[in-house]
Amino acid sequence: MASRYDVIVLGLGGMGSAAADHLAARGARVLGLERFGPVHDRGSSHGGSRITRQSYFEGPDYVPLLLRAYELYERLEREAGRAIALLCGGLMIGRPDSTTVAGSLRSATAHGLPHELLDAKEIRARFPTLAPQDDEIALYEARAGLLRPEATVAAQLKLAAAAGADLHYQEPVTDWTALPGGRGVRVTTPDDVYTAGHLVVCPGAWAPEQLADLGVPFTIERQVMYWFAPVGGTAPFEPERHPVYIWEDAAGTQIYGFPAIEGPDGGAKVAFFRKGSVCTPDTIDRTVHPREAREMAAHAGARLPDLPGRLLRAVTCMYTTTPDEHFVIAPHPAHEQVTVACGFSGHGFKFVPVVGEILADLALTGTTPHPIELFRPSRLGGR
Ligand SMILES: Cc1cc2nc3c(=O)[nH]c(=O)nc-3n(C[C@H](O)[C@H](O)[C@H](O)COP(=O)(O)OP(=O)(O)OC[C@H]3O[C@@H](n4cnc5c(N)ncnc54)[C@H](O)[C@@H]3O)c2cc1C
Q1: pLDDT tens sequence across 129-160
Q2: Pairing relation of β-strands 137-141 and 116-118?
Q3: Alpha-carbon distance 254 to 271, whole Å?
Q4: Is the Cβ atom of 43 under 6 angstroms away from ligand 1?
Q5: Is 347 in the pocket of ligand 1 (CB under 6 A)?
Q6: How far apart are CA 225 and CA 292, in angstroms?
Q7: Which of 21, 44, 326, 352 has the most Cβ atoms closer than 10 angstroms to its Cβ?
């Protein structure tokens, strides 16, 4: 029996909606299956803002992908007719030998990216909300800024549907099988059984359940985002004069934050980068406790004294972290007709459209011109 679909995409969050968009734009017959509704807050792609930047302290290998992601985000804004990026500038702050500063500088130098180095006095003069220690410096990148995750996912879903993709919501995949001899895949949901030539698996925090046979030890982490009403109002925190920032202390703890982008009553968002607790999508505690909020206010207040006025809200989100914090993007090692994208380790959103392009390449041609060697699952002792 001939399949109605060339490709099924499992999960329509950040990465899956990008894959559906790129696949449908190339003329593939696409079915997207999503457990929840379109643009939801149960996974990893919600909360109003994500940092984007190019001087990437996680490694220079990411920079070519970032340059392409910037182009594709611009294209997405044009095609969908909505604003997604706000490039308000970004500061990577810490001691000169911190991962945040030294790593960012390494990528900037390796790829000739425009940047400035500011000492503590220069930081205070240009950005008066920030109170660095005398031994802290910053790499400033004018093209850093933020992306709106909900607008990104909505735009990609809209374009995918307009290009003919069938997108089914409230329809979780309960089972998938790669058919022997490379004869495509069979995907089961409570509503139906579907066949297709290829399956793209973008399960976010459900990776341990959907991709157990990859053999990659994923850790699902509960993370909290906090919105504070600054003391004295949001004016000094508005994006015309306030950058995004990642700030590493002497112990290696990183916080990151955003300008106030939600109007005078919306506050400014701040969070710890990697201070999560282990959870599963079923067991995550979605309540944010007063002691956590006090810890965030104290840590942020020591650096941005006016930020933590009143706590307006706090929302949980999940990271899917690999042991080396690099992504997993590859053909499934055991099934050539399956492609996987997961383990984004808390830093995937800025790559969303380029991951969509890579997934479309892999699903339709088996290979991609993009450098994805770093993301092969076998590096982690998997199959
Ligand atoms: C608090 C927080 C802050 C972050 N900050 C940044 C940042 O500043 N910059 C940055 O670049 N990145 C950031 N990230 C990381 C980034 O947001 C993630 O890497 C990215 O959103 C992951 O996208 P995804 O598609 O893998 O997951 P998701 O968007 O969660 O999508 C997975 C989808 O799969 C669906 N699904 C799962 N199982 C099934 C099934 N069986 N059947 C059907 N559907 C299924 C889920 O419902 C979900 O919609 C942050 C993440 C968090 C949580």
Answers
A1: 999 999 999 999 999 999 999 999 999 999 99
A2: antiparallel
A3: 9
A4: yes
A5: yes
A6: 11
A7: 21
